């Protein structure tokens, strides 16, 4: 009963005096925290200014819109932010993720030779469809992937709509349309931020505003079911969730957004100060023997009559009687400029999951060990994103394409709908990572395969290659060498070079 009365009083005060209601809520929260067991929740003098707002599972629409626009501005105008997005997209997707069919013969009851034939059919179908994947007849699927991962980083999410094209020259009619996050919106009841939810919290429909090319005031909406009656996805809403029940994605730069802004403003101020300091200007002061200062004070003007308000390199200006120049010398940039900027950039890199060396492409202060550690940490981060993106974005589209190919008779698979999961089983291969020291890393790969810790498929995939294509190419080269009378196996094997001397940084680390 007491709680009910308190709630009624609070609601009444909130209507007529929101400020007073907020202070009452803060006071009540402070009373609850006075006996807190965790220091992070205590209300001591040092923690009293840590005021928390209401934390929603999904940010409000206006908040997400602001975050997206600021993230887009960072990608347009901030060199570090734009470079970080490009680094992420190149390392996650690069020139595009390609499927490698992994059909198991025993799982679908066919011979290994038949399973290999089905694998080649599936990959050939994909290679044929990929260049024509865009609904706008402009983008290939590789380009769609690259644009999609960029939008996930920039906007926090991407919408892909599998639709149809009826062009007679197409082998397959399935095409992919990408939609901007801003288009997923609705003014109809039953939708929450453009999404209609079912009783289990699952999305059952999406509302998209139609592209308004004429920029009229009238906005038209189109409702698209999340899945058709057979369970095929009709909208792919791809975003990395941060909380349970989250409906919309948050831009990747959100935790570091304020640092990007403050650092950009600071650097701009330093550039302006450097430009001012670089200007060599001479001011010549006139004496006042006749006492004319009072009548001419403040009359400093340029030759065209405009007031002098700036300086430029080589400026020579004569001051009027009674005028003088007071120069403010802030002594900038100070000795702490470079360490401060580097420290802020390291914080930004931590929030983005990228080492400082990768964020700025700066390996000038690293040795082999530290450079390799940075690259391995970045690779782990990129591989996690690549695996997630391939499962959420690429795999559903691969399944839709193979299903259409089966229905049109291009994919000779037995009982497709019975063995659908197995027939669509594949791994996604992206671009290779390269080597810091090729000799050492090739030797490490060979040893890993010799000891059974790795396979040719894994090592080839690490370099962005298909192991079957590697072996087939090697076989063709061997056959050609025999035709020419060459014996490649008789060539001396490369000797393992002696271990390099540890660098100075490594020696110091070993001493420490």
Q: SSE string, helix = H, strand = E?
A: HHHHEHHHEEEEEEEHEHEHHHHEHHHH
Radius of gyration: 32 Å
| Anisotropy-based shape | globular
> Structural class of the helices, strands and pairings?
alpha+beta
Determine the mean pLDDT: 81
Stretches with pLDDT under 50, minimum 5 residues: 293-299
How far from one another are the termini? 66 Å
Strand order of the largest sheet: 4-5-6-7
Number of helical stretches of at least 4 residues: 17
Fraction of residues in H or I helices = 40-55%
Taking the sheet with the most strands, its summary is: 4 strands, antiparallel
Number of strands: 11
Give the percentage of residues in beta strands: 5-15%
Write the layout of secondary structure elements.
Elements: H1 2-16, H2 18-33, H3 61-77, H4 79-92, E1 98-101, H5 105-108, H6 112-129, H7 141-155, E2 158-164, E3 174-179, E4 191-192, E5 195-197, E6 203-209, E7 221-225, E8 236-238, H8 257-278, E9 281-284, H9 293-296, E10 315-318, H10 337-352, H11 356-360, H12 368-407, H13 420-423, E11 426-429, H14 438-450, H15 456-462, H16 467-483, H17 504-511
Parallel strand pairs: 9-10
Antiparallel strand pairs: 1-11, 2-3, 2-8, 4-5, 5-6, 6-7
């Amino acid at each position: 009963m007491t709680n009910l009365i308190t709630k009624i009083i609070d609601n009444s005060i909130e209507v007529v005096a929101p400020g007073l209601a907020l202070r009452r809520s803060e006071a009540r929260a402070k009373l609850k925290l006075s006996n807190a067991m965790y220091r992070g929740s205590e209300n001591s003098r040092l923690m009293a200014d840590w005021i928390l707002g209401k934390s929603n599972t999904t940010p409000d629409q206006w908040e997400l819109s602001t975050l997206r626009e600021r993230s887009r501005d960072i990608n347009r105008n901030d060199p570090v932010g734009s470079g970080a997005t490009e680094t992420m997209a190149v390392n996650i997707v690069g020139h595009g993720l390609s499927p490698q069919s992994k059909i198991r013969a025993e799982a679908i009851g066919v011979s290994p030779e038949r399973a290999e034939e089905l694998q080649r059919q599936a990959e050939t179908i994909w290679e044929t469809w990929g260049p024509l994947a865009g609904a706008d007849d402009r983008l290939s699927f590789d380009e769609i992937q690259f644009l999609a991962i960029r939008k996930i980083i920039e906007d926090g999410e991407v919408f892909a709509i599998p639709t149809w094209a009826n062009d007679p020259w197409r082998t397959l009619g399935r095409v992919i349309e990408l939609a901007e996050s801003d288009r997923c919106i609705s003014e109809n009841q039953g939708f929450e931020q453009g999404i209609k939810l079912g009783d289990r919290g699952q999305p059952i429909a999406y509302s998209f505003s139609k592209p308004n090319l004429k920029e009229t005031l009238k906005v038209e909406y189109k409702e698209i079911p999340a899945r058709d009656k057979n369970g095929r996805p009709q909208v792919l809403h791809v975003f990395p969730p941060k909380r349970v029940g989250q409906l919309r994605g948050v831009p990747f730069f959100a935790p570091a957004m304020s640092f990007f802004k403050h650092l950009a403003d600071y650097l701009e101020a330093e550039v302006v100060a450097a430009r001012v300091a670089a200007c060599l200007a001479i001011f010549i002061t006139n004496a006042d023997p006749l006492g004319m200062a009072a009548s001419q004070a403040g009359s400093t003007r340029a030759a065209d009559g405009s007031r002098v308000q700036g300086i430029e390199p080589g400026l020579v200006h004569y001051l009027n009687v009674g005028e003088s120049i007071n120069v403010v010398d802030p002594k900038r940039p100070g000795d702490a400029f470079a360490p401060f900027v580097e420290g802020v950039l390291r914080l930004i890199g931590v929030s983005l999951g990228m080492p400082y060396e990768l964020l700025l492409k700066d390996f000038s202060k690293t040795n082999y060990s530290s450079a390799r550690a940075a690259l391995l940490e970045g690779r782990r981060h990129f591989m996690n994103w690549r695996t997630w993106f391939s499962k959420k974005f690429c795999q559903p589209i691969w399944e839709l394409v193979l299903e259409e190919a089966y229905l049109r008779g291009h994919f000779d698979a037995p009982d497709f709908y019975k063995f659908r999961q197995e027939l669509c089983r594949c791994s996604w291969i992206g671009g290779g990572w390269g080597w810091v020291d090729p000799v050492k890393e090739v030797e490490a790969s060979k040893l890993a395969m010799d000891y059974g810790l790795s396979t040719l498929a894994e090592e080839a995939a690490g370099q962005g290659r298909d192991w079957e294509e590697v072996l087939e190419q090697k076989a063709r080269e061997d056959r050609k060498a025999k035709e020419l009378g060459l014996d490649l196996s008789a060539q001396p094997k490369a000797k393992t070079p002696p271990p390099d001397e540890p660098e100075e940084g490594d020696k110091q680390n070993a001493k420490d």
